[in-house]
Structure formats: C-alpha cells, structure tokens
Amino acid sequence: MKITDAKVIVCSPGRNFVTLKIFTDEGIYGLGDATLNGMEKAVVSYLENYCVPALIGKDPRNIEDIWHFFYKGAYWKRGSVTMTAVSAIDMALWDIKGKALNTPLYNLIGGKSRNGILVYCHANGRDAEETIEKAGQKIEQGFRAIRLQSGIPGIEHTYGVSKDNKPYEPAEKGLAQTEYWDTARYLNFIPSLFKKARAEFGDDIHLLHDVHHRCTPVEAARLARELEPYHLFWLEDPVSGELQEGLRLIRSHSTTPIAIGEVFNSVYDYTTLITEQLIDYIRMPLVHGGGITHLLKVASMASVYHIQTGFHGATDLSPVNMAAAIHFNMAINNFGIQEYMPHQEIVNEVFKTNFNFDKGFLFIDDTPGIGVDIDEKKAAKYPYQMASLPVNRKSDGTMFYW
Ligand code: EZ4
Ligand code: CO
What we know:
The chain is an alpha/beta fold. It has 13 helices and 20 strands.
C-alpha cells in the first residue's frame, strides 16, 4: 500500500477547522484533525510545504515509523504547530488502517474496556446564581459532570463566560482582543461559587473548574485547599504548566485532584508531573499531542502512576478529533473523563459523525477506522476566517497569561 497524495482542507462552519486527508493507491483515504485555534494557517503551511511531499510514496501501514520520521527525523522538533501536523498525519494513518482492516479504531488499540465514555460539559453565567441555573439545565439534559465558570464582580471578562449568552467561543474575528484580570478578586470569589453549587446539587454530580493558567503555584495551592470541602472532580490548569516543578507546591498543600496540559504537545511536558505523581489527569488531546501513537505511550506511562486521562474537547477541536478520542477512551484502561462541548449544528453539515450522547455518556458506532467523513463541497461553502484568541493583562496593564 502506498500514499499517493494528501491535501489540507480548511473550512469555517461557524469556526475554523483544518483537516488533513491522505489518499492511497487502494482507494482508501484517512482523515486527521489539524486544527490549532488562532494559528490554523501555520499548521496548514507546515503540512502543505513540508509534510505532504514527504508522505507521498510511503507505506501508510507503517504508522510507528512514519511518526518517528516526522518527530525524531525532524531536527526542529516539538512545539504546538509542528506537533499538530504530526498528530493529523498520525490520525489519518490510523483511520486508513482501520478502513483497510475493516474494523473500528478501538479494535486496533486494545478493544473495548467500557460501555460508554463519561463526559463533562460546561455551565457558565454572569454571576454565581446564573452559573448554577445553567448547571441545573445541564443536569436535566442528562450530564453527570459539569465544569463551572462564572463572571466575577470587578472583572470585566472572565475566561469561560460568553459575552452574548451563546455557547462560549474564545476566538474572535481579527486580531487578539485584550481582556483584563485580577487574581485577588478571583481567589476571593471561586470557593463561594462551589459552596453554593454543592448546596444546590448535593454530592452526586461531578463538579470541575478551569483556572486557565492564571495562578502562581502558591495562589493555586490556596485555591485547591479552599476548594477541598466541595470535592471537585478536578481543578484544571491551576498554573501555567511550563514550570513542572511548580506543581509540587500545590500537591504538598491539597488533595484536590489536578488536571493539566491542554496546551502541552509531548510526553516531555509531563515527565516530572507523572513520575512524581503531581497530577491526576492528562489533558493533552490527540490533535495537539502527537496523535494516537504518542498518546498511547503517554497514557501507558501515566497508568503506571495511577494517573488517568481527561482530554481537552473544546469546540476548536474538530469532530474528527472527538471521534478518535472516543475510540481511544474506549480502549485504554486508565480513562478518566472526556470534555464535551457539542459543536454548532452547521458543523454537522460539513462533518458526518458516528457518535452520540446519552445520559452523561458518549457512544461510538463500529464504522471502520475513526468513522467521521467530511463533505468537501459543503466545506467549500464556509471559507477560512481569520480569528484570534484574546490576550490577557492584569488590571494595571501588565501582560499576563490568558
Ligand atoms: O481555552 O480551547 O478547557 N478548555 C479550555 C478551552 C481553551 C480553548 C482555547 O482554544 O481551556 O476553552
Ligand atoms: Co482548559
């Protein structure tokens, strides 16, 4: 079997998606997600100019070797842009293998370990009361795990809270907008939100929260400790994770479970965190973390240390990634939870999917490969639109993490 061609499809049904399609001489093609929110064209360029020409003529069955060709073989390795490209190639190759062997992806990586995939959704509101009201609606829709993000008195735009009461989409058209931040107000507010939520919903609903990289290690330790009485499923990205040693401080002060790494792109972002048992959940998704091939290794290493997966699943990851993640989560033993933000209806005009939600869980059918297809004619109706994630400054103007 030989790769004959590959192309990159960019479309914007409501938001931008980049999809890699790899063709073979046996008429089988595979799809991979290559979407990197706000940096889409950088990945497109790396794929089109450097990866696609190198793929042509290779045997798509040799996934491990091709993965290392694009990782070890590249002198300038790692980084979100290049690893997203490697991830897309890897996903498309697993899709081809599944189709060639006429079996769903989960069968190729261990078979089924469970019946369905526990997911968490988002609830957000302008204040604690509205956030709790929204969470109540999610529980009525069947969700068993909910991430709470709330507007905070004195902070104009809080991460995770939509400005227009529509589903939250952080990227906006054009160049980056500036938001302003105040950690002291945030830290004083969040424990009261979870106190109210526990009083309203009791102990059986899983509650989660995303700090979105905005605390120093000692601030995060305080927050994790003050949230302990409300038994969070996890506290996400409590600090910006590039300082792996910073997580030691949080761990030494609190038993609140920690999830980290939606912006990570290699096992080497995790080695201290895993081997010192400083975290509880791996957030790095297939689409940015080297695809199925690399996440299988990360998940295996994590499993040795009793750490579970909880992959990023925002709407800026395409349905191809979501389906691949469900297969992956079905197969591994140390699956924990999957983030699930349903895409807008118009996304389903372009992508034909094979998964469905029922009573808090996602289920995937047994279509061979990953099982998602793209309608290129429909995709062409929605051309790319430049959009950027916000930048964040402290209220005195100092540049900060978004
Ligand atoms: O900010 O996907 O947990 N979810 C998140 C997301 C990220 C966006 C960035 O593109 O933190 O909302
Ligand atoms: Co997050």
